[in-house]
């Protein structure tokens, strides 16, 4: 039996736009934004993947998030604004946004990528979310991007501030370790798997020889931060 037979039907670009109330004039732009390079290998009718739109969306997000923070946190210092922006546009947070709007249901992936769980992989979700933002900007302008993003930013920023997600988890964990008389945490790479363009690293963090947390991510830095955050959660220093 086909392994994909039991999977839900892929959402079309038009269905996605209607569900998210995105008034695309050119649905081909949205279709391109949803197209991963693995899809091109199996579908000759698809002419371009989403990597250029991803690049554009990354730049657009940096700008609109920066402006939104500037207006919504008028008393926040420049350094804190920079950390907040980083927290709102990093891979895991953009993947959270993508999951919130169920973007994985509409991603155009190759069969192998689907079977490998690509629809829920943070790196792919982040990249596709950026590409959709880039496509929305090209199609409808910055106001449309603002209308789409502002509700997501409002909810996420409150969570980031309450749970100190704008603070570097590695720094917080090191401060705790030192306050307890321990040496600095040690981060150990346990595995790295996947193709070069989509590799996933898994690390663990140890303190005084004991494992306090594990984490995975598209880079060693991201995986180390994830491991540090898990350690902070276990220690009760941050909340989910």
Count of discrete alpha- or pi-helical segments spanning 4 or more residues = 11
Parts with pLDDT < 50 across at least 5 consecutive residues? 1-6
What structural category characterises the helix and strand content?
mainly alpha
Q: Got a strand count? A: 3
Radius of gyration: 19 Å
What is the terminal-to-terminal distance? Answer: 39 Å
Mean pLDDT: 90
- CATH level 4 superfamily of the largest domain: Ribonuclease III domain
What do these coordinates show?
This protein is mostly helical. The protein folds into two domains: 13-162, Ribonuclease III domain (Ribonuclease iii, N-terminal Endonuclease Domain, Chain A); 169-235, Double Stranded RNA Binding Domain. Helices cover 56% and strands 10% of the residues. The protein contains eleven helices and three strands; from the N terminus they run ααααααααααβββα. It has a three-stranded antiparallel sheet, covered by helices on one side. A hairpin with a 2-residue loop joins β2 and β3. The longest helix is centred in the first third of the chain and has 22 residues, at 51-72. The N and C termini lie far apart (39 Å).
